[in-house]
Design a protein that fits this description.
By secondary structure, the protein is of the alpha+beta class. The chain has ten helices and six strands, in the order H-H-H-H-E-H-E-E-E-E-H-H-H-H-H-E. Strands 1-2-3-4-5-6 form a six-stranded antiparallel β-sheet. Helix 6 runs parallel beside helix 8, helix 6 packs antiparallel against helix 10 and helix 7 runs antiparallel to helix 8.
């Protein structure tokens, strides 16, 4: 499976238009796996950060892993077999192995919401109404309780890195999302001193991308 179109034809689901756009622009990849990734690939990526480079608990799935990830999630012998009425399409993962998925047959939704499917629990959390809102949310959450020990953002170049990150992502976000991130990322002293807490971040998220199902959870394992 070498293209998104080939994957879509095989599994009978489609990726959102924005995901296609980002794939075509080679913005979804963080470089090939490498034992010295931080010294080989990371410096090159920092000049024009690709999708969610500085996000917490986010690792993009390389295109060649998209179909295998879907096969694993939908396998009959999966230890948490997926409900037959759910169409989930993995596109990224956390460091713990939980998957971010597009919920492509979500009832009553104009676009595929993004959900987090927990690998060790019968639980999927609705994180955003669409991919654009998901990008915004992960960018907000990247500066919560900032600790350079656990972030690709650095204390020394924090302002420049945040502005470069927002610079590449502007074209994929709405005007209100850009304005909210500009205001948040301008508070570099508050960020550097870990004064942006979870409650403030979630208030921003709710104000900009809130909808009825945001942060709702549902069971995904087949009975």
């Amino acid at each position: 499976m070498h293209t998104l179109a080939e994957i879509e034809r095989t599994i009978g689901q489609t990726f959102p238009p924005l995901f296609h756009q980002l794939d075509a622009a080679d913005q979804l990849s963080w470089g090939a796996p490498h034992p010295q990734w931080s010294s080989v690939h990371f410096p090159r990526l920092q000049a024009a950060p690709p999708v969610l480079l500085y996000a917490q608990e986010y690792e993009p799935l390389p295109r060649e892993q998209l179909h295998p990830a879907w096969e694993a999630l939908t396998a009959e012998d999966h230890y948490n077999p997926l409900r037959e009425d759910l169409h989930l399409l993995p596109f990224a993962q956390t460091g713990a192995g939980d998957h971010y998925c597009f919920w492509t047959n979500a009832p009553g939704m104009a676009e595929a919401p993004v959900v987090l499917v927990w690998h060790d629990d019968d639980r999927a959390d609705v994180l955003a109404a669409n991919l654009q809102d998901f990008l915004f949310r992960k960018m907000v959450e990247a500066v919560v309780a900032f600790d350079p020990s656990y972030s690709l953002l650095s204390s020394a170049a924090l302002a420049a890195e945040l502005q470069a990150w927002l610079g590449t992502h502007r074209q994929w976000l709405r005007a209100d999302q850009i304005a909210a991130l500009e205001a948040l990322f301008a508070r570099t002293d508050d960020i550097a001193n870990a004064r942006i807490d979870e409650a403030e971040a979630q208030a921003i998220v709710q104000a900009i991308i809130g909808f009825e199902r945001l942060d709702a959870s549902f069971a995904y394992v087949r009975d």
